[in-house]
From TrEMBL:
Protein name: DUF5686 family protein
Annotated coiled-coil segments of the chain: none
Organism: Chitinophaga pollutisoli
Pfam families: CarbopepD_reg_2, DUF5686
Protein origin, superkingdom: Bacteria
Length: 613
């Protein structure tokens, strides 16, 4: 009996010690360092051992081991630099995030001599099937677009910002700096989102976009926003040429792509009982407008499932350091083809500065997803004949008034931690009186206008100036804002020359009769000096900045103009419009006197003109 008791006690003791020998778990993901896209079927291996695995279709991995064989885990993907992360052999569970960058390793390094290049055979099949796989072959289609554009600052000097007396009150925004997902930390500062319905008709070709929701948040900058506008480009990998800003690049699956690219088949995988082949590509010659990257293609239909491309480092695009493009496709509802599911465009660029150390670097990330596809349906083509949508791009009246609950239920993918931090940051800034003061001052200096409820003053650079005819000149500009009247816009100015002792001015009025399609009447009267007789490379005299930039010794020619103008404009739903105007002008040129002085009284006889259009 005692023997049985000892055996039971021994078993209990062994069981009690089992948790101490539980398996070690190492999980994580592998993604592209630039695009943040997950990389499927990446090879992982513990350094110095034969223990390893391959990530799944979502780029994730999970090791469950009785002991960790090495303190370093290596990831290898064709076209990317090898990356090694440290593994703590004492921790029972840990998470690793691999961010790998494209390397400069040439495919020729792995070239295998054979009588047949299977990659070129695959390319020929892709090109042959392009007319069937290209979604633009559809007669008509409609889908919902979710578009998101984020702007991040890369090389911020956080120490100086925290100590500067102007930026110190806003030092809390530095808490949003992300130092976990990039080798260099970045600060997300701008985010814009939109949800819209997009319509396409092939013959005759027509497009229309109805924006249902839109919002922008962050520290907006006009010059940066203009640059980001270049990211709004429609890219179709099935086209022979792909636009990237102001340049045109050869598509990896162009009809004559073999003249510009080297190809190599690097992997084969089965997903949902379908076989997919991975093919890497790189430019044949340096300096050509071609991409480096890889694609996944379905072997039976030769339709592209995913394309990842990057612009080589030797490409010459102004103010751009790095560009990556990713497109993903999904099957039609009836599995008769593949349609665009996701489009991603990531750009590293910089703003010029006289001092290289002061140059700011930015990351622009544009992500577009496509859902609710409807194709070859009369409901799509009928929309183009509806008079309620005359423009190609229509913004719904409620687009900018959507609530947070609407966005949470309608955006195609949830916001990341960084993206949500932008909204939180701006909400906090908007409640700070000091920030309102700074932003209003910057807006006034940039635009020149200062609103006072229904009245607006500006631009300020016309406030005073000086010339030889008028001497010191003062001018006051006033106009109305939508608070005064949503359809009536009044504008004018009054100027006085202390040298010629005369008043000048202008008054104008525009009444908007109809917004869609646009129709208005306009009238104006002006009596002032006209710069039409100035030299072609001169700056107008009625400007505060001319005091500093006007060339000395260059004679000024002046002409007084008196103009009466009336206009009527009407636009139709078809896009046709007409514009009627009646103009009466009277010119009174001033004659220069010997010695370069200008007469204040010796004006020529008035020259009158009448114009009907």
């Amino acid at each position: 009996m005692n023997g049985w008791k000892r055996t039971i006690a021994l078993v209990i003791t062994i069981i009690s010690f089992l948790p101490l020998h539980a398996q070690h778990k190492i999980k994580g993901i592998v993604k592209d360092a630039h695009t943040q896209e997950l990389i499927p079927f990446a090879t992982l291996q513990f350094v110095g051992t034969n223990t390893g695995m391959v990530t799944d279709a979502e780029g994730a991995f999970l090791f469950e081991l009785p002991s960790i064989p090495s303190d370093s885990l290596l990831v290898r993907v064709m076209g990317y630099a090898r990356t090694v992360l440290f593994v703590d052999r004492k921790l029972p569970e840990q998470t690793l995030i691999f961010e790998i960058s494209r390397g400069d390793v040439s495919l020729k390094t792995y070239e295998v001599k054979a009588n047949v290049n299977f990659a070129l055979i695959l390319l020929r099949n892709i090109v042959r099937r392009k007319p069937y796989n290209n979604y633009d072959r559809l007669e008509s289609y409609k889908y919902e677009i979710y578009n998101k554009l984020e702007l991040d600052i890369k090389n911020l000097n956080t120490v100086k910002l925290a100590r500067n007396r102007f930026s110190k009150p806003f030092a809390f925004i530095l808490k949003n700096i992300d130092s976990t997902t990039e080798n260099q930390p970045f600060l997300p500062v701008f985010l814009t989102e939109s949800i819209s319905d997009y319509y396409f008709q092939r013959n005759p070709k027509k497009t229309k976009e109805i924006i249902k929701a839109s919002r922008t948040s962050g520290l907006d900058n006009e010059s940066v926003t203009k640059f980001l506008g270049g990211m709004y480009q429609n890219i179709n990998v099935y086209d022979n040429f792909i636009p990237v800003f102001d340049k045109s690049f050869v598509s990896p699956i162009a009809n004559n792509g073999n003249l510009f690219y080297n190809y190599r088949i690097t992997d084969t995988q089965y997903i949902a009982n379908h076989r997919f082949i991975r093919m890497n590509f790189e430019p044949r010659r340096k300096g050509e407008n071609a991409f480096i990257g890889d694609l996944w293609v379905m072997d039976s239909t030769f339709a592209i499932q995913k394309m990842s491309m990057a612009v080589p480092n030797d490409a010459n695009i102004n103010f751009v350091r790095k560009i990556s493009l990713v497109q993903e496709f999904k099957p039609f509802p009836d599995s008769s083809g593949w349609f665009l599911a996701k489009d991603k465009f990531v750009v590293d660029f910089w703003t010029p500065s006289p001092k290289p150390t002061k140059t700011l670097e930015f990351i622009g990330r544009k992500t577009t997803t496509y859902e609710d596809l409807v194709y070859n349906d009369t409901a799509v083509t009928n929309l183009f004949s509806e008079k309620r949508y005359p423009q190609n791009i229509v913004v719904a009246d409620s687009a900018r008034a959507r609530t947070d609950s609407f966005w949470a239920g309608h955006r195609h993918e949830t916001l990341s931690h960084n993206e949500q931090a932008i909204y939180n940051m701006v909400d906090t800034l908007q409640k700070m009186p000091l920030f309102q003061k700074y932003s209003n001052t910057i807006r006034f200096l940039a635009t020149g206008y200062k609103p006072f409820g229904p009245i607006e003053w500006g631009p300020y650079w016309y406030l005073f100036s000086q010339n030889r005819l008028e001497g010191f000149r003062a001018r006051l500009d006033l106009g109305t804002t939508p608070q005064f009247h949503k359809d009536l816009y009044l504008n004018g100015y009054l100027a006085y020359g202390f040298g010629d002792d005369r008043f000048k001015g202008k008054v104008s009025a525009l009444y908007l009769l109809k917004r869609h399609p646009r129709m208005y009447v306009y009238g104006s009267f002006v009596r002032d000096l006209d710069n039409g007789a100035s030299y072609y490379d001169e700056v107008g005299t009625d400007n505060i900045f001319t005091l500093a930039i006007r060339k000395p010794g260059v004679p000024q020619k002046f002409m007084q103009i008196e103009e009466k103008r009336a206009e009527f404009y009407k636009e139709y739903f078809s896009g046709f419009s007409h514009h009627f105007s009646v103009v009466h002008k009277q010119f009174m040129p001033y004659d220069p006197l010997p010695g370069g002085l200008l007469s204040r009284t010796a004006a020529a006889k008035p020259i009158r003109t009448r114009t009907w259009k």
